[in-house]
Write a structure and sequence with these properties.
GO terms for molecular function: tRNA threonylcarbamoyladenosine dehydratase. InterPro entries: ThiF/MoeB/HesA. This protein has two domains: 90 residues, no CATH class; 138 residues, no CATH class. Helices cover 41% and strands 9% of the residues. Helix 4 packs across helix 6. By secondary structure, the protein is mainly alpha-helical. The strands form three sheets. The protein has a two-stranded antiparallel sheet. Strands 3-4 form a two-stranded antiparallel sheet. The chain has a two-stranded antiparallel ribbon with strand order 5-6.
Length: 249
């Protein structure tokens, strides 16, 4: 959608123009095709005659001039084919979900993974003592916990799976780019938002089909109220997205 557009001057201008008209760009009804490739060639300068005439005739909207030369002639055709393919699939009842946004850098993937490992370690420390005291851990904890096991939650109302993180850096890239599109699953926020992974169901391991990307603000609410603190519509969307994850080995 339009919020995903990056490095595309025309898409950025359309976003600004629609916001000015108070059009809801978050609507699921607005789909766009754009290029996230960094622009390397500037627009050709207008000639003196063009400047003296009507410069506005060379733009689709104010302050956004249509590229004249240089331009790769196949690009407009490629964009048109992508749009046509999307529409035909929708009409045929076979919608597809193209990958949107930029690739996730190695440092970002590593940071997200380390933060998630720290979160999982904190969950384990929070509940481990109670579990040991209850007599459920016959081996003192560390080795058995490392292999993955079920323990009782601190309030005694549910079971929690504790064990090693089940994803790696490649899984992080897959989850960020293809599953959650680098956005908070609750608010849809992206730019200027700190995003982290959480387990959707603490009774299940930390596999791809059980990890949700949320902003730190949404995580605070989720940790306090759990899934019940989210609206039914948001829960449904998250579960649909999780069900589409790849099979975890």
């Amino acid at each position: 959608d339009l919020r995903s557009a990056s490095r595309d001057p025309l898409a950025a201008k359309l976003k600004w123009f629609l916001k000015k008209l108070k059009v809801d760009i978050d609507s699921d009804l607005i789909d766009i095709v754009y290029s996230s490739e960094k622009t390397v060639v500037p627009l050709a300068e207008l000639t003196d005659e063009q400047k003296a005439g009507s410069p506005g005739e060379f733009g689709a909207v104010d302050n956004m001039r249509v590229r004249v030369l240089p331009v790769l002639g196949t690009m407009p055709a490629t964009m048109g084919q992508a749009q046509a393919a999307y529409v035909l699939c929708e009409i045929g009842g076979k919608p597809f979900s193209p990958i949107a946004g930029e690739r996730i850098g190695k440092n970002v993937r590593h940071k997200r993974l380390q933060h998630f490992k720290n979160r999982e370690a904190a969950i384990r420390r929070q509940h481990q003592t109670d579990d040991v005291n209850s007599g459920n851990d016959n081996n003192g904890g560390s080795d058995q916990a490392y292999e993955g096991r079920m323990i009782q939650s601190k309030d005694g109302k549910s079971n929690i799976w504790v064990g090693p993180v089940q994803i790696d850096s490649d899984d992080v890239e897959y989850l960020l780019g293809e599953v959650w599109r680098n956005r908070c699953a609750v608010t849809g926020a992206r730019l200027g938002t700190i995003l982290e992974f959480v387990r959707w169901d603490l009774s299940k391991p930390s596999i791809c089909s059980n990890l949700v990307l949320m902003s730190t603000h949404a995580i605070e609410k989720f940790d306090e109220s759990g899934q019940g603190g989210l609206s039914a519509n948001i829960r449904r969307k998250i579960e649909v997205r999780l069900s589409s994850c790849k099979v975890d080995w």
